[in-house]
Amino acid sequence: MRKIFILTVFTLICIGLQAQKQKKYDVAAFLYPAYAADDPRLRPFWPHGIGEWETVANMQERYPGHYWNRKPLWGYINEADPTVMAMEIDAATKHGVNVFIFDWYWYDGRPFMETTLDNGFLKAENVDKMKFYLMWANHEVVNVWDTRLANIDEHNVIWTGQVDRNEFEKICKRNIEKYFKHPQYYKIDGKPVFMIYDVPQLITGLGGLVQTIDALNWFKEETKRAGFPGLDLQLTMWSINVNYSGVDGSRTHEPDKDFVKKLGFTSSTHYQFVHFTNVNRDYMEIMEDVKKEWARIDATFDLIYYPHVSVGWDNSPRTGKSAVVKNNTPENFEKALRDAKAYVDAHSNQAPLITINSWNEWTETSYLQPCNVFGYGYLEAVKRVFK
């Protein structure tokens, strides 16, 4: 009898370990689509025709002797080339990254920086290996992309991220038809996931909080009319997006922690650690604050939170100076990923989604792609945790 009991316990342990081993995670990396050639709308910011690779390539020319001297092991690739993107999809999925969150822009009445998604990713021969969804980066465009002007301290708004109701509906209908209906678009419970970056810009453009609630409700209903069970509207979680008094100038009362729910957001994640904590310190110190923030959001907001891990932060390629995350080695990044994995495992009632900043934010020094400093270290870290 004792042998049978021991064998039963051993079998249950093995089954449990096997189930844990086989659990799948959706590891989603933000993809910044500015590393593209032959996109004429990029030329005013990066005249050499290679997108923001120009900022990476001429860093030492602009700031001789500066400590930042990163080089991509894959070279200054054109990510709007489907052959190049096929290589990237292979590398990403091999290491456990199975979703790209494309930063998606709309300025001056039309899309901006869309060639990496349309010409590169969606035309890659192996696109069926990878899911994607959109993060509407509806922020203002100022001088920061143009290195000739980036270090000038002025708030020179080139494009606003605000749109009125007519333009909002045009954007939503276009994205539903062009992207939501694509078989590789990432969905949770059948609902396309759509992330919005800047809530104040959205509310100001649409004319106020009441008008924004109405517009987002319309968006959800339009998504249903297209044949989906609904829309997973995802909030970029940072202070400007959750402060009621800060996003609607006509309101004067105290911030309302529930207003993001009133707007119709159903889930949230972060885009970058720099949005909510002091990043000018050691990575593991930052992670202590990050875990506290995850717990605070989970306890405070009535919407699902998906844990986020940033690789790092250093914006000096653009401006020559920056707050800098210290000691963000692949080994420490791996520890952060294990914390995110533990959070997902403890929230089994939600999708197993973790977001990472980012696949390729070179000029913010927060990228997974291989470089001359860490090689494939960050990708290998993802692989060890999730693959």
TrEMBL record:
Keywords, alphabetical: Hydrolase
Signal peptide interval: none
Keyword Hydrolase belongs to the record: yes
Keyword Hydrolase: yes
Pfam families for this protein: Glyco_tran_WbsX
GO molecular function, one term: hydrolase activity
Alphabetized InterPro entries for the sequence: WbsX
Protein name in UniProt: Glycosyl hydrolase family 99-like domain
